[in-house]
Amino acid sequence: MSRPDTTTSSNNPRVSIVGDITHHHYTENKMVTIIDYKLAQNSLGKQFVSLKLQSGVEAVQSQNSGRFYLTARSCSIASIFTEAAAKTMIGTQIPGKIVRVDSDP
């Protein structure tokens, strides 16, 4: 029986992650989780609720050291929900993913 590929996650040779953590092939839908909310104001001074979303865990390789670490992407998005409704939504998962997109400042 052959041994699966391992990726050493530290200088300690006893600590390793079995499998290739850099390439994931998911067949299920990606999900984001509502983890928080905050009250914000638009440029006209009108108050609205901003939801903070977080993706699932992903492995990223450091550009400086080459070592892998785990992280989760997050973002904020405006909503039309009341503060009370937003509070009840914390922990809710919805289909989607968070990606970095270039935009004008």
Question: Would you kindly provide a written description of the structure presented here, covering whatever features stand out?
Answer:
The chain is mainly beta. It has a domain at 25-95. The protein has one helix and eight strands, in the order βββββββαβ. It has one helix at 83-89; strands at 6-8, 16-18, 31-41, 47-54, 58-61, 68-71, 74-79, 93-95. A four-stranded antiparallel beta sheet has the order 7-4-3-8. It has a two-stranded antiparallel sheet with strand order 1-2. 2% of the residues are buried. Residues 1-19 and 21-28 have low confidence and may be disordered.
What gyration radius follows from the Cα positions, in whole Å? 19 Å
The string of secondary-structure elements, in order, is EEEEEEEHE
Count of β-strands: 8
Strands of the widest sheet, in order across it, are 7-4-3-8
Tell me about the largest β-sheet: 4 strands, antiparallel
| Cα shape | globular
Task: Summarize model confidence as the mean pLDDT.
Answer: 80
Strand residues, percent: 35-45%
Helices and strands: which structural class? mainly beta
Distance between the ends: 55 Å
What's the number of helices?
1
Portion in helices: under 10%
Low-confidence stretches: 1-19, 21-28
